[in-house]
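Standup notes, structure subgroup. Blocker cleared on the zinc ion input:
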Amino acid sequence: MFLVGEFRHLWYNISVMSKALIAVDKSRSFRVYLTITTDLVAEAARIHDTTPLGSAGLGRVLTAAGLMGIMMKNPTDKLTVSFKGEGPARQILATGYGTGKVKGYIANPYVDLPLTEAGKLDVGGSLGLGDLTVIKDIGLKEPYMGTIALVSGEIADDLTAYFYISEQQNSSVALGVKVEPDLSIGAAGGMIIQMMPEDGGGVAKADAPAADGDGLISIREGAIQALEKVIADMPPMTTLIDEIAKNNKAASESGLVKLLLEKIFEELPEEYKPEVLEERDIEWECDCSRERIEQALMTIGRKDLTEIIEEEGQAELQCQFCLRKYQFNKEELEGILELI
Ligand SMILES: [Zn+2]
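Run returned:
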């Protein structure tokens, strides 16, 4: 039996899928992880009832977590990206899995600030001074955890700094969410470019022209220089996504991501053009369940649970990712108490 207020929760677990791809350039100098997440961000904005500013922040973090999820090797690998700040949004958190599944929330979905001087949604201002923490669980004894101070709170800059400082990884992150005047999500997407390790990547040393002496630069350095130019000249992600969607109305979603890849790198010299390795899905899905919520109830301890049973006689817990509510009556709570 559903209470009136719960009808809107009936469609919680509908999954929404976005297309992503992994590409590597011909010289094996860098990898590209690219996705269009318009539908996924729209779903998250609907569930969390976010303001445009809230949609922009949550959408960027979700898109990044989705991309970082598919960067991991195993389906069981999991990572959490948490932006915490003194600003009115307070916290934006997302969890991504090796499978491409992703979920997230913003502590204050109703966050609202004036636009920046450039007329943009002020995601950096909504977070303010704070930290970015990334927790990676790749099946080792202890999960890996890295924390850095926020660079700008604009998400992409902070993640670029995180990769450099915490993972000694040269990368470039671009993320974008465009909110329409009617508050719908017009376009959303993201890209992470990751430089391959210096000594690996499949380029035989003998093939690479020497960096010294004759004034030639190595293939890798050439790739870096060409990439830097592409990144510096790149229009906002959402402008590109908008343009491609409008000019290719008949294209499938994965077709659009491929066209986006071509568009972003069209000015790159042929020898550095990225080629698609793999197509992936990034999917909004919350994996909460009654069993998990029961386990959470057990962790509060005998004393507190006894208090709840005696004083409230029931409990209602809400999943912070999908906002689904779980009710426990007195008998059920007593059953849980016996298991502690
Ligand atoms: Zn949930």
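Discussed briefly. The longest helix spans residues 52-70.
Next: hand off to the docking folks.
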